[in-house]
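Q: Two folds, back to back.
A: First:
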Amino acid sequence: MNDGDSSRAEAESSADPEAARLGERLEFLFAHVQPLHRRYTLQEVVTGISAAAGDGEPKVSVGRLWTLLKGKAGNPTIGTLRAVGDFFGVPQAYFIDDEVAERVAAQLALIAAMRENDVRSVALRAAAVATMSAQGLDTVRSLVEQSGALDSTGGKRPDEGQDPQDAAS
């Protein structure tokens, strides 16, 4: 191994943790924000950002977005964070504030769960509850999951049809 290989390997092993965190948060958005019922392509995101950008507003290239998504580039501009956040419908604080990121991630996961259970009309109400408290969000998510379980048992509760004495134990 020559000196060039050694310094390259050292640089890769000491990757910027902030860049990695940003990449994970971007990946989460790509995985959970899917109004087309599929993952956006990098080109679709870049095209959407460009279409929404006014004069003098930042635009992002496919290459730059890829390096951010893969956690290979840190320190994006505030304008880049704003543009990407606007495209995905999240505040730019999602990318830098752990508390905001947790709240947004929980809301997006809830919406995805509702989409999977085909209860889209409830998603807007649940999003309002989700902004009130994390406990409220957990309750709504639990109800959605229970609803899915009822659907898979033909609308019967797992304990339905049992002797009440047996169900209590």
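A: Second:
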Amino acid sequence: MKKHSFNFFTIFSIFLILSSCSISSNYYSIDYMEPGKITFPKRITHIAVLNNIHPKDITHQSENLAFTKTTAEDIFNGMISALAETDYFKQITIADTIWAVPDSLILPTDTFKKMKDKIDADLIISLEAVNALDQNIEINYPNPATFYMESINPFIQIYNTEKDVAFIHGKKDTIDITDSFILQLTIPNKNKRKPEDYTLTAGYLIGRSIAKDLTPHWKTESRLSYTDEPPFALANKAVKNNDFDKALLECENIYNNNSKMVYRIKAAYNAAGYAEISDQIELAYEWIQKALTLAQEYYNIDMTSTTTKLKDSNDLYVNCLLYSKLLKQRFENKEILNQQMNRFVIEN
């Protein structure tokens, strides 16, 4: 995979991105690898990809894409670029448009078979539709602003040339394309844009979302860390020195010895985060379960779903609950990720 030299464990780069005047919490950014939704056999190394989107598919219901001058071809090219960036497949062939049948609901099986005779690929992937809808979000505080969001419900057909069978894969996602709006307003002439501006375009952002289902990919998220002092002073110092093993030990000490239940909950929560940074996902999940159990006992809450009322009244409990669900998903995904990355293992 691109981004970093490959390591069969998730590699994290972390840095503080937000620090408030209060000493109660900080946020940090974390990068980790997430598996694709589809797992392909190791023998699949060469794919052919066809753009079978009807030209009107992406614009007839989307003013956002019309404003940013985003075409079906832009989204298809964005998907190809995102697939190529992963280095997951050894070869990607862009199928000639002569094979496209955009007026058909899906590409006919007979067309796949004809393509198979002409293209020596392990898989043929046909991007059939995007189904884009505007889902913009307007806010008034602290200042009026609009976030330009695009809801997509694309589907693709995947044809296995060896088994002579095709299946349809669909997904739903919502993508923030606000950067694309800003780019269109500031540099409307595409010829005057810098190469790095391409990753801000709606075509690339939507195409990348579709490609994520087909390959393992990098994901960036932010994590919360409680920094109340003096209890967390030593842990905070260790974090600043990038010594997360020591930070975890300091949090373990607070969890075991502090008399205040709130600090014990926060310590267990932080310990989960520091374990996750070190790619100890199972240990991270154990710690967040400790935090959640303590929070349930202390606040006498056993809710497993979040509500606005609950968030407003007890954000510590909600944070424990949400992080527990996230880490559970990461733990379940790790086996899938290892299976997908097995193709890079060099066998003796």
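Q: And?
A: The longest strand covers residues 25-34.
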